[in-house]
Amino acid sequence: MSSVIEQPRFSCALAAQQTVLAIPRALPIVHAGPGCCMKVMQFAAQGAGRQGEGYGGANNVACTNTYEPEVVFGGEKKLRSTIDGAMRVLKGDLFVVLTGCTADIVGDDSVNIAKEFAAQGRPVVGVETAGFKGTSYFGHEEVVNAIIDQFVGETEPKPRRGLVNVFSVVPFQDPYWRGDLHQIKKLLESIGLEVNILFGYESKGIAEWKDIPHAQFNLLVSPWAGLKTVKLLREKYGTPYLHYPVLPVGAQETSAFLREVAVYAGISKSVVEDQIKREEDRFYKYLITLIDFLAEFRNNLPTELYTVADSAYALGTSGFLVNELGFILKGVYITDDTPRNHIDRIIETAALRDEVFRDRLFFESDGGVVQQDILNKLCGSRKALFLGSGWEKFLAQKTGNYYSFLSLPLPETVILGKSFLGYSGGLNLVEEIYSDLFKTRAHFSTTTVSAEIEANKYAV
Integer distance in angstroms from the first to the last C-alpha of the chain? Predict the structure, then answer.
């Protein structure tokens, strides 16, 4: 990663305020200067498909709004009064105190102040999330682990067979997080598991978090983000974990995912295979209906694939498009500032899906470097699909190629419950890609069909 980056794809650790907001009836209390909350909100919510403020985001986030006096004399007194005031005014089941850069630089002991309130029986957790400490991914893990340590706390585990805690995408950093978590829960329930999904509208809120110690096992569906959490739970409660390092997109990967989970959970093979057969039959029936379209537009469709996203979505979507749709992989650019100790494992995981990934996987957080590399590889081609963010839209328009949205920042679209995960998600991705082609009809100007579309575009 460059020391100064162009076109950033993530925010700072304080973006963990969005992780808190993703838990039903959980509220952040931010100890930072004025503007920090809103900047995070603008990037991680508005920039993630205009997802809005939700239950207690944006202007509803309690903040100390520290100025010069707090920098010079310390802001602990103001933080105490802000926590007390927030708990009097706001209706929440859990309050998480987060810190910005100024608070951590001057040394305010925010975590112990939060513990003072917790000692009074109040549901308060404290986490140091100064922006200079890391990215959105770092802040997310810190918050999740702090809630487990300080709120779930010490308890005697009573493992319940069939119960699984799911740790996967980072809320809002994955713009499709709500739909993705819904799909993961639906897949696991389809083979008979009980699921604590923990975030989003499918979660029961803090009741699920309190239930974490009693799971049969923990499931991490992510290349690396969340590993610290499942290891903490193994150490704290003795709960084993299964690490599935790719988001399942499409039939092949989703079926493999269900089979591996089923073996780990001790679920009957017949139950799983029956479910897989039903889903694959449906999936391929829909996919076959695409043949007429592919045949008609075959000379004008993109065949080369460039994916720009974090490691979770980049591997899952690229593997599906290469192995089941026949795209030619030109480059996968992983933008999540992946820790070095995870890179080799991610490369091996990708190579297991297709050996072509081995020399076409690049770890780079600087969007300027990524786009220059893509330009160098294009060699004037107009048959490329850029799967990425709003930045890749501009590159597609500049080079006369195609684009579909996948990763942050995405301020030019609206996302509610959309997902590209699972069997249905794979079909959604196919629809998205090929429907987007008609948004740039100039690419079809040499076809009879496009001429007819153009001639009749104003017809009633």
Answer: 53
Distance in angstroms (rounded) separating the CA atoms of residues 36 and 353: 41
Give the mean pLDDT of the chain.
Answer: 93
Cα separation, 391 vs 330, in Å, equals 18
Half-sphere exposure of 360 (CA within 13 A, CB side): 24
Q: Is 261 exposed, middle or buried (0-12, 13-18, 19+ CB in 10 A)?
A: buried
What stretches in the chain show pLDDT beneath 70? 1-2, 440-460
Residue whose tokens read 């493999």: 256
Assign 298 to helix, strand or coil.
Answer: coil
Cβ(414)–Cβ(49) below 8 Å: yes
The length of the chain, given as a count of residues: 460
pLDDT at residue 460, as a whole number: 36
- Per DSSP, the three-state class of 141 is helix
Provide CB contacts within 8 A for 449, sequence distance 6+: 296, 297
Partners of 387 in beta bridges: 307, 404
Q: Are 223 and 349 in contact (CB under 8 A)?
A: yes
Q: Are 297 and 447 in contact (CB under 8 A)?
A: yes
- Domains in the chain, ordered, with CATH? 13-152 (3.40.50.1980), 160-284 (3.40.50.1980), 301-448 (3.40.50.1980)
CB atoms within 10 A of CB 158: 7
Q: Tell me, what's the pLDDT at 74? A: 85
Cα–Cα distances (Å) from 272 to 262, 269, 277, 402, 420, in that order, read: 7, 5, 9, 38, 22
In this predicted model, what pLDDT tens digit does every residue of 383-412 receive, in sequence order?
999 999 999 999 999 999 999 999 999 999
Axis crossing angle, helix 136-147 with helix 227-237, rounded to the nearest 10: 20
